[in-house]
């Protein structure tokens, strides 16, 4: 995925930070168990958040485990669960189709890294697509629709954002309870729309240099390769509206002891990341920060 979906860790209690760490490490171990050591490289915050939403138990169980990254001191780790299994499957499927998109978008030489990564992930993808055929097919179709919009240089921001939003909303289709499925579908839809807009804003400068499709460049006014203040405010408003709609759906469900983490993400983390992207101060996590998800700056 993209790495934009993060809780505001400074606002979490110590117990909530441990639960978040446990979910992150639990997904890492699940990727390793289901798809091998290399699959841990696709671990990110976005799918950890998805796993927290999909978990059906009110209380997350777990203990402490060691791994090759933390061989000496055991780390909090969530117990195996169907939610973590599903999140791992989705991680592989989403990464696979992103790689295929990279192969299609680049020439032979620039596309070599995408082909190499696809080759390494091929066996894992086959297993994941067999476990989640509906999500795999939905992802393939929606990304094909996105590719068509890119080819036609669609000037609308809403059409591609809606397409990606519908892709992510498909992550809720396997939820058995109809009320909870509807709530999560709405949360995933508006999260997907926010992710698409945030990623477009984050990539704007790079896309202008390479000539790649970016709907923001076609929809908004630019000045010296950047959004004008008025355009930035308009984009911020539509991004914030997606978060507000996601928050409204969140309030309809009970997420047990994960509620504080999810609330911190929805009400604080997404706004903070969105503001950082629009102001040009956002940076993706380094590998070290990814392995220590609640490590504060300067600590």
SSE layout and pairings?
Elements: H1 14-35, H2 45-54, E1 62-65, E2 75-78, H3 82-105, H4 112-131, H5 133-151, H6 158-169, H7 178-210, H8 215-219, E3 222-223, E4 226-227, H9 229-250, H10 259-279, H11 287-291
Antiparallel strand pairs: 1-2, 3-4
Helix pairs in contact: 1-2, 1-3, 2-3, 3-4, 3-5, 4-5, 5-6, 6-7, 7-9, 9-10
Plain-language structure description:
This protein is mainly α. The protein has one domain: Farnesyl Diphosphate Synthase. 65% of the residues lie in helices and 4% in strands. It is built from eleven helices and four strands, in the order ααββααααααββααα. The strands form two sheets. The chain has a two-stranded antiparallel ribbon with strand order 1-2. Strands 3-4 form a two-stranded antiparallel ribbon. A hairpin with a 2-residue loop joins strand 3 and strand 4. The protein is globular, with a radius of gyration of 19 Å. The C terminus is likely disordered.
Task: Give a nutshell description of this structure.
With 299 residues, the chain is mainly alpha-helical.
Summarize model confidence as the mean pLDDT: 88
Rg for CA atoms: 19 Å
Helix % is 55-70%
H/E element order: HHEEHHHHHHEEHHH
Overall form = globular
What is the architecture at the second tier of CATH?
A: Orthogonal Bundle
- Please provide the count of β strands: 4
Unreliable sequence segments: 285-299
CATH names the topology as Farnesyl Diphosphate Synthase
- Summarize the biggest pleated sheet: 2 strands, antiparallel
Helix-strand makeup class:
mainly alpha
Strand content: under 5%
Count of discrete domains:
1
**Terminal-residue CA separation:** 27 Å
CATH class: Mainly Alpha
């Amino acid at each position: 995925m993209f790495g934009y979906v993060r809780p505001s860790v400074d606002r979490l209690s110590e117990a909530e930070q441990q639960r978040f760490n446990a979910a992150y490490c639990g997904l890492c171990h699940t990727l390793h168990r289901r798809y091998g050591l290399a699959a841990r490289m696709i671990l990110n915050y976005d799918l950890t958040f998805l796993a927290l939403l999909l978990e059906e138990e009110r209380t997350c169980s777990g203990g402490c485990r060691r791994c090759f990254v933390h061989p000496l001191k055991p780390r909090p780790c969530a117990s195996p669960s169907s939610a973590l299994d599903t999140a791992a499957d989705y991680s592989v499927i989403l990464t696979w189709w992103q790689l295929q998109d990279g192969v299609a978008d680049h020439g032979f030489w620039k596309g070599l890294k995408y082909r190499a990564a696809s080759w390494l992930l091929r066996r894992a993808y086959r297993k994941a697509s067999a476990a989640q055929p509906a999500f795999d097919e939905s992802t393939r179709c929606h990304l094909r629709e996105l590719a068509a919009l890119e080819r036609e240089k669609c000037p609308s921001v809403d059409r591609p954002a809606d397409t990606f939003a519908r892709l992510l909303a498909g992550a809720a289709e396997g939820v058995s309870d109809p009320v909870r499925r509807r709530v999560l579908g709405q949360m995933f839809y508006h999260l997907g729309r926010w992710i698409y807009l945030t990623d477009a804003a984050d990539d704007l400068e790079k896309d202008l240099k390479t000539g790649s499709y970016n709907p923001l460049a076609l929809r908004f006014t630019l000045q010296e390769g950047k959004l004008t203040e008025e355009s930035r405010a308009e984009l911020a408003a539509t991004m914030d509206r997606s978060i507000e709609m996601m928050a409204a759906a969140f309030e309809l469900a009970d997420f047990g002891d994960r509620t504080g983490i999810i609330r911190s993400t929805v009400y604080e983390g997404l706004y903070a990341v969105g503001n950082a992207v629009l102001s040009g101060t956002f940076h993706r996590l380094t590998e070290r920060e990814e392995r220590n998800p609640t490590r504060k700056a300067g600590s």
